[in-house]
Amino acid sequence: MIKKLDKLILKAFVGPFIATFFITLFVLVLQFFWLYIDDFVGKGLDLVTIGEAILYVAATVVPLALPLAVLLSSIMTFGNLGETFELVAIKSAGIPLLRFMRPIMVVALILSGVAFLFNNYLLPVSNLKLNRLKYDIINKKPAFDLREGSFYTNIPGYSIKVGKKEKDDSTLREIIIFEKDYNLQDNIIIANKGIMRVSDDKRFLEFKLMDGWRYTERGSRVNTNTEYIRLGFKEFKKVFDLSSLSFNKTEDSLFKDNYQMLSVRQLDGAIDSLSKVHTIFRKKVSDEIGTYVQFYKYMDTAYTPLTTKATADSLRDIIPDSLHSSMNDRVLSQLSIVKSSLEITKTDYQNRMKSLRLHKMAWHEKFAMSIACFVLFLIGAPLGSIIRKGGIGTPLVFAVIFFVVFFLLNNFGKKFVKEDVMAPIWGIWLATFVLVPIGVFLTYKAMRDSQLFNKEFYYRTFRRLRPLLSRFNKKSGAVQPQ
Fold first, then answer.
1. Band (253; pLDDT cuts 50, 70, 90)
2. Which residue(s) pair with 217 in the sheet?
3. Which residues cross the membrane (predicted)?
4. CB 181: neighbour CB atoms within 10 A?
5. Within-domain flag for 325
6. Nearest to 79 by CA among 402, 377, 385, 453
7. Closest Cα partner for 247 from 131, 130, 137, 135?
8. How far apart are CA 464 and CA 475, in angstroms?
């Protein structure tokens, strides 16, 4: 049964949480577009495509926005209650800190569950759609834009240069068109004036050229005898296909096997398959070496190999001197082939092991980012009750500090996993392992009304220590050096 105290705490928490969640979401989306601004500008994207990109980006940053929103809103909630002395009234009624933390603690656990469901089911789809859309946008050619005095080369097979554009942006002067047909000589069209028109469906560009010449040279590259044609015209119509500049959507199947696009169940299957890499490569190496080194197949486990010198002496006794040179050449050739084969196998093995680490990292990350909501609540709630400051000022400072710590530890852990410095379970849970003890410590301090962040406490402490410090300075100054 929800009591009045629980309603009071929840009501104080919901407003700041919703506000901080959407503010955080907005900032993280802006960060994404700031990183990819060069790939989006000048592509002539329509509003639907831009809106689609914003939607997918917002969905992919939700796992990061939720913990930060929980941290900041919990600090603000308990800071406001402390600033208005409501915490003092609650404690004076004999209600312990953990009791009035309980309603938000339950909410944090529910948010952790919601975050896991989002990470497991919606995030893979969002990552898939975003990567496909980002790939299409990055690979899309810039929108058609003729500039005075420079060549436009984004239409395949053509280079177009315009000397001057009139104010209506349709009438052009001093037009040069190079038509690349990859023969001995490119075709060239020169016109004094032209009128440009783009079709309504943006698929074709029509040039109506006036007072110009068309130069064509026919012949093959292997023959220097060519036919040169010069054609003058009063009016000439040239049509260009703009389909290469259009926005083409790639199939989602191109990215569906990436570890970021998989759910926990799919990751389990992929990890189980990749975990057999040791057995597969052991058999592969055995088969490949056995092809070139025949005795490898018949080696006995109890066989003790001779030393290099003893082996060389025994071979000299068996093989005639006349065959030593050819034998050495053949041995070196076989060893070179074995070395190349092993290097290829080694590279393949390292790639498989890296893929296994990345899949395990994605599996742990789905749980770690969900639990982060509860972990940062353990820091935010007692921190707010200690600092006893509401609003957006002081709570924001502390929230940013702890979130930066969480963000850096999380990124360092992922980097260590990718570089095979740490196991996935340690790298991905590094931030949790560090922040949970801090949260427990802050809760312990808050339960005992600690003045950990009260500047007045440190000021009074320093005033008490000042006489002792001055006395110590006098004693140390009284001792004269010999």
1. low
2. 228
3. 12-34, 54-79, 100-123, 367-387, 394-413, 425-444
4. 11
5. no
6. 385
7. 137
8. 18
